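In practice, a research group might receive sequence data for several interacting partners and want a quick structural hypothesis before committing to experiments. The following worked case mirrors that situation: the sequences arrive first, and a predicted assembly follows.
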Amino acid sequence: MMEFLNFYLFPGILLGCIYALGAIGISLTFGILRFSNFAHGDTMVLGVYITLSFVWLTDLHPLVVMPLAMALTAFAMLGMDRAFFKPFRKSPPIMSVIASFGLMLMIRSAVQFFWGTQIQAMVKGIQPPLQWLQPLMLREKQLYILGGTVILMVAMHLLLTRTKIGKAMRAVSDNPDLAALTGINTERVVQATWILGASLAVAAGVFLALDTQVETNMGFKMLLPMFAAAILGGIGKPYGAVLGGMVIGIVEEVSAYPWIGTTPLLNPGYKAGVAFAIMVLMLIWRPQGLLRGRQF
Amino acid sequence: MHPTRLLAALAVLAATVSAVPARADDVKLGSVAGATGPIAEIVAPILAARNLAAAHVNAQGGILGGNSLVLVLGDSQCDPKAAVDAAHKVVSLEQVVAVVGANCSGATNAMAQSVTIPAGIVSVSDASAAPSITALDDRDLVFRVAPSDTNKGAALARLAWDAGHRSLAVAHANDDYNSGIAEVFAATFVELGGTVTASEPHEPGKQSYRSEVAALAGAGEADALALFAYYGGSGISFLRNVLEADAFDTFLAADGMLDPSVIETLGAEALAGRLTIIQSDSDPENASLAAFAELYRAATDLDPNGPYVAHGYDATFLLALAIEKAGAADPSLISAALREIANAPGEVICPGEWEKAVALIAAGEDINYEGASGPVDFDAAGDIEGFYSINVVTPEGTFEKRPLK
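A structural hypothesis for the assembly, expressed as tokens:
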């Protein structure tokens, strides 16, 4: 039982938290700007490397400097939106998709150029599990990830339900034409979307880097599971993205548990395929996603 | 120098080397390497060694009567698909005479099968060690100065046995190199009388290997874990998850893990005395190695004893000698010429002795290149004998190397 919790369920929940934070941005961009943003993973990478630089400069814990990196990355994303996406706002979505693809490669190359391709550690060394939680094997950094995710989720919930801009975002996501008719400033909503999406992506990236390591292609590796999470939850539904991320993270890890006999139910090598199996089945039987997102 | 800045500088250097506009009578040699990708830091010093060999040729009178030798870089990214693209670029577009590379075995296999063998181009790899390369149906076109892992895997297994390990778990990334050495290693260990509790392949490039680690640990008590992976592909992540789970005490690995970033990210205290890495190396008593090391240190501030650095120089220098011996930049003549200049008999040529070699070839005499990595005498399959070193992690966070006799 402890083995199940320590090696399968908890890693799954942690991975789910990270997928969920990342998927929110993808889902919102899709809902509000109406294109799949391939550059999202590399926005995450940019934020992680900015955080890493602050850690090098100040020697503070990554989570302390993370808000600053979130702000800088969000600011950078606003600039990139103006340069690469705004000209295509009225064009067919495929233009923006291709632009995001180009932006993805540009960001990654820039990061590789300035920071190098070497694998870096956000926090060096191996953390032992916390003694007071024995026999549960949870490390301090993992508690930070869980706690950080909960805080960010609550903040996002308050933003979307209690503030004017949050309500406007949901309105545009639900029906852009109707929202524009009621006098909502869609450009402001677009900016808010980039800020929220980029900030949460940076958080997801830093959490991932805390749990694993910093590398320039970490965003690309995360891109497909994050898309799967967004689709599973329902495109344009931030809460759906959270749910989808958790489901995919947990199912990926738990699918390798020896449920029958002593060998893993599914060879761990294939666990990435689980996310896609779920995504494909979802698109066939319930294309609107778990939370009735947009349908194609 | 800061490693990132160094890498950036090297990248720019490599780009300028390949961007030099080639004149019609330049002799072009393809240089296919994993300049980016999971072992980029290991490849950077290898590329510097290849460039050094070309620089020696050009500084000592050039090739084929005063022409310059130009290395055309193709980035194989340590990936079979990217290697095919890179090889196409240098072979079809740049019309090179022969190819140095690739580094990773998967890349070399793919490049040879899809591009260089069909095109009739000789390739000399400086780092590909997979046993499967020996068996390629290559019309005598695929050579390598990196010894096959048939011996290295066996040597590591004997080392494990001699260290008192009787049961082992094996984890390997599912690419040509890591699967190849894992297979030889496990087979030898079982022959010696040991038990392999589990041998599990894993997919590189994942964020977490916790369920893989749990499966290995659940397969039974093992004295040690043999982990065959590229450090940037899955090696560091896998080892981190193993250490966090405290699943094994001792670890064995091969060249793909031999990078300082393993210690930097995981910490010396977690690895000191616990991680042993076997390396295809040069015999420290080899006079050619000392000559090469001096030349390399004079030209760069990188380590000449790094994995496959000497091999990178040898592969490039051998091909340059073969072209000179053939007397023309004709790809069809290279294979035969390569064996003549690499194997005995003949006057011994050491690294850096380009002028001497050219004079001997012009006089019609036989030469025998004795490389920095070893005697580089090719057998029928285009393979060479190997020499191995063992690296252990010290408490100070460095690799301590000793030759394995």
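Before designing any experiment, note the following. The longest helix of chain B spans residues 40-59. Confidence is low (pLDDT under 50) at residues 1-10, 15-20 of chain B.
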